[in-house]
Amino acid sequence: NGIHAFGGACIRRLLNRRVPKSCHSRRACAWGWRLNYYNEWDKYAAAWLRNLIAAGHLPAGEVDERSITDVSPGDLAGFTQCHFFAGIGGWSLAARLAGWPEDRELWTGSPPCQPFSVAGKQRGQDDDRHLWPHYFRLIAARRPAVLMGEQVAAAVGKNWLDGVHADLEGIGYSCGAAVVPACAVNAPHRRDRLWFVADARSQ
Question: How far apart are CA 19 and CA 127, in angstroms?
């Protein structure tokens, strides 16, 4: 769909990273990369993830059904790619379609939009579903080479993006973002979305 197509276009623009040397499982080593980590607390979506992985539609990986609030940095050691708020694997699929190597480091995460959506109560950072601080806690501890994410466009006016960039730039990342509608990649609807990327190498 439009989201996957745009996600793929964004991923293609980033530079190559080194290939990690160790593997997390026999299956991953045989294919030349370590397992992915998928974090998705919704049990139905998590079941879909496992089915899609088993069918070969998504890269091999472990599905963690805990809330991101319960994940510690040590839990993520050894994973090359980590996908938070994974849903049914949209970011992982977009990376594969874009040709992003499955042995190349990447974190993705599109935190819940409800605190910032015009369809909700718009409580912003005061909403319990504002989970960026928990995602950033893991980023700051593990320092992935590249991370990407998506959020509703309304979050720009709620100071969400400013906070994200301030947090990431404060630990050495270079950040970029753009609001792009789904119709820009020929989807039959507008669906404005904020897309962001951060690179640990660029200053």
Answer: 39
Q: Which of 69, 98, 70 is nearest to 81 (CA)?
A: 98
Pair 34, 24: CB distance under 8 Å: yes
Q: In what order do the strands lie in the sheet with 174-181?
A: 61-64, 36-39, 81-84, 106-109, 146-152, 192-199, 174-181
- C-alpha to C-alpha distances, 195 to 19, 50, 81, 82, 128, nearest whole angstrom: 26, 26, 19, 18, 22
Q: Span 150-164, mean pLDDT?
A: 77
One DSSP character per residue, 4-54 reads HHHHHHHHHTSPP-PPPS--SSHHHHHHTSPPEEEE---HHHHHHHHHHHH
Q: What is the pTM of this model?
A: 0.77
Give the position of tokens 């890269």. Answer: 59
Which residue has 């998506």 as its token pair?
A: 150
What DSSP character marks residue 67? -
Question: Is it the case that residue 101 has pLDDT exceeding 70?
Answer: yes
Residue predicted with more confidence, 150 or 12: 150
Write the CB contacts of 12 (distance below 8 Å, at least 6 apart in sequence): 98, 99, 100
